[in-house]
Write a sequence for this structure.
């Protein structure tokens, strides 16, 4: 039984050995001589029997690395591998004649290649690949060429929505010296692919697409992708700190005018805003266009300056003599603020058609202490409301707190709504 099994195995090996062939070094030398000497191959002649028909060249791109986007010069930097395929009708053979060889790898300088260049490149003008790189020729005449390339391409950027912006950038490949009647570029099987390991700390790549077209008689193929900025760093280091500073500045109006620290507090907050702006200015894009975030930061500085000026005017009004008459419309606005705050106004008694002296009136702003004038004690039925300058400054703080709170909330919501 064992001898029978051994006989079957040896018989199978002998039969299969007779069916299998492998090319030798001599076969490859003969094939090389046949292609480039016997056939009289000339790499300067486009490999088409019918020179009136264009040579179809398919192009694919595997983007293996992404260095980043640079706003100042609107440049995208990336690296990738192009896969270029075409048919050379002058390079074909019968595999059985050369030990079953179905392909051969030769230096790229030995055969005709399409003169491909990156049309929107910002770098130097050089041939794709290099003298050390090879391409693969199949027995059918099909050629596969995979040059490695660093792409420094122009990308027109719109940073209006910074830091929630996204850019659409492309790599445009063109046959530089050949129009569409000579070389026709087409999309390969895979088009544009993004490597699974492609990462960047500031940008996220998505939505790769490929489009072949003819423009001004030249054949182009465009590899496009969407590049979205990661906003986390800018939210934590710019937007949130600036918003907190503006909120703190608004709370200037909650400080009593007599505390003596109101002006210094407002100045300190304004200086803090300027310091933060100085620190984050290097993080903002260096372009001529203006983003919503820059407008937001400018609004924060403007609000801080307005709060400081209003505080200075309010303190000036607070120190006015009570003998100075208060305009009627200011008194009405002050009384309205009391009603909105649900606080009771101060009152005085009218005696024989004459108002009592305002110096005898306790202002609403005087800590709410209940005091009565001599006239009130004698004649409480003729009470009238009296507004003092200290009440006016208290009303100013109330209205300004509401106004600037609304402005801060509105601008923040508007920024989020426009950019997200």
């Amino acid at each position: 039984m064992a001898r029978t099994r051994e006989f079957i195995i040896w018989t199978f090996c002998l039969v299969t050995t007779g069916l299998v062939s492998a090319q030798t070094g001599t076969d490859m030398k003969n094939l090389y001589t046949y292609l480039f000497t016997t056939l009289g191959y000339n790499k300067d002649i486009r490999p088409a029997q019918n020179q009136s028909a264009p040579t179809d060249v398919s192009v694919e791109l595997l983007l293996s690395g992404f260095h980043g986007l640079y706003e100042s010069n609107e440049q995208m930097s990336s690296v990738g591998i192009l896969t270029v395929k075409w048919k050379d009708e002058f390079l074909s053979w019968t595999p059985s004649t050369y030990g079953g060889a179905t392909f051969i790898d030769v230096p790229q300088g030995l055969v005709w290649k399409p003169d491909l260049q990156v049309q929107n490149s910002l770098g130097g003008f050089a041939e794709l690949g290099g003298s050390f790189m090879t391409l693969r020729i199949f027995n059918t005449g099909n050629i596969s060429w995979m040059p490695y390339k660093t792409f420094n391409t122009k990308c027109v950027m719109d940073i209006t929505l910074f830091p929630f912006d996204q850019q659409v950038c492309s790599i445009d490949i063109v046959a530089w010296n050949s129009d569409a009647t000579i070389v026709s570029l087409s999309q390969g099987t895979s088009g544009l692919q993004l490597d699974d390991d492609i990462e960047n700390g500031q940008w996220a790549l998505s939505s790769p697409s490929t489009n072949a077209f003819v423009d001004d008689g030249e054949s182009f193929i465009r590899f496009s992708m969407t590049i979205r900025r990661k906003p986390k760093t800018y939210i934590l280091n710019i937007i949130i700190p600036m918003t907190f500073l503006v909120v703190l500045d608004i709370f200037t109006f909650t400080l009593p005018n007599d505390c003596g620290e109101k002006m210094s507090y407002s100045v300190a907050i304004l200086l803090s805003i300027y310091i933060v702006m100085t620190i984050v200015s290097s993080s903002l894009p260096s372009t001529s266009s203006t983003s919503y975030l820059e407008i937001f930061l400018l609004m924060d500085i403007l609000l801080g300056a307005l709060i400081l000026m209003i505080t200075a005017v309010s303190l000036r009004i607070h120190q006015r003599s009570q003998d100075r008459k208060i305009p009627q419309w200011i008194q009405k606005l002050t009384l309205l603020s009391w009603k909105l705050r649900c606080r009771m106004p101060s009152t005085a008694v009218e005696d024989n058609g004459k108002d009592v002296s305002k110096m005898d009136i306790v202002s609403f702003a005087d800590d709410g202490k209940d005091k009565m004038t001599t006239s009130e004690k004698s004649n409480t039925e003729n009470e009238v409301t009296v507004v003092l300058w200290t009440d006016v400054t208290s009303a100013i703080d109330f209205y300004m707190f509401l106004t600037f709170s609304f402005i801060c909330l509105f601008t923040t919501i508007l920024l989020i709504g426009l950019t997200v």
